[in-house]
Give the backbone structure.
Amino acid sequence: MAGVVPIPIDTYKVGFIGAGKMAESIARGVVKSGVLPASRIRTAHLSSGRRTAFESFGVKVFDNNNEVVEDSDVVIFSVKPQIVKDVVLQLRPRLSKKQLLVSVVAGVKLKDLQEWAGHSRFIRVMPNTPAAVGQAASVMSLGAAASEEDGELIARLFGAIGKIWKADEKLFDAVTGLSGSGPAYIYLVIEALADGGVAAGLPRELALGLASQTVLGAGSMATNAGKHPGQLKDDVTSPGGTTIAGIHELEKGGFRGILMNAVVSATKRSRELSQS
């Protein structure tokens, strides 16, 4: 949008269509980080439980989505994939070309969202469930009319709940296979490590705590240490020591190949679902 001077982020009003857990996680993260005050965020829901969840940290809750759209500069669709088409089409008469539209709906392509909305100032974002604890891995793709300034705005909003990257939408199935489904793979790893600890004689609670913290610490090292994961692995692996004995066992079981296959298989399934 050439010639438009970007306005400060805290002057935008952000509205969520859909008041579920993901919308709540994003809103809480944005408020907690100070990126946007709660008074600039709105949503709609009739359930007292969901209303209370948002109102508890200062978000304005309307009775219907029409009010949210009419009072927002940025509209974030956070509804189930099965109903997003109906929701967008229903709101289309009230959507303005001046509004930036965002979708966090899994498996729904930009071209369809843009067609249903009647304009293409749209950004698709795929966060994952650790958004609930401010540690999301999110990826965004910009629609035809979305500007770089729009992208920077959304990067700041979603940066409040973790880390965000920009990528071509054609990569989103692979993103689903890795970061979308990936938390479940890691939960299996944590559970298995804890079971191993119990098998080796540790109390269950201690084993689970050690396993969870070990995965958290290793992930933090991989993110912040500035070293390749292979180098970090080598740093822990002494000649003839305990770690290499454990790694040898993992390699005999095809551990790395199994994880690689899991990502590829989930990617394939995502592709199938998005084409159905």
User: Anything to note?
Assistant: Confidence is low (pLDDT under 50) at residues 1-5. The first strand starts at residue 14 and ends at 17. The chain has two domains: 9-172, 180-275. The beta strands are 14-17, 41-44, 60-62, 74-77, 100-103, 122-126, 136-142, 162-166.
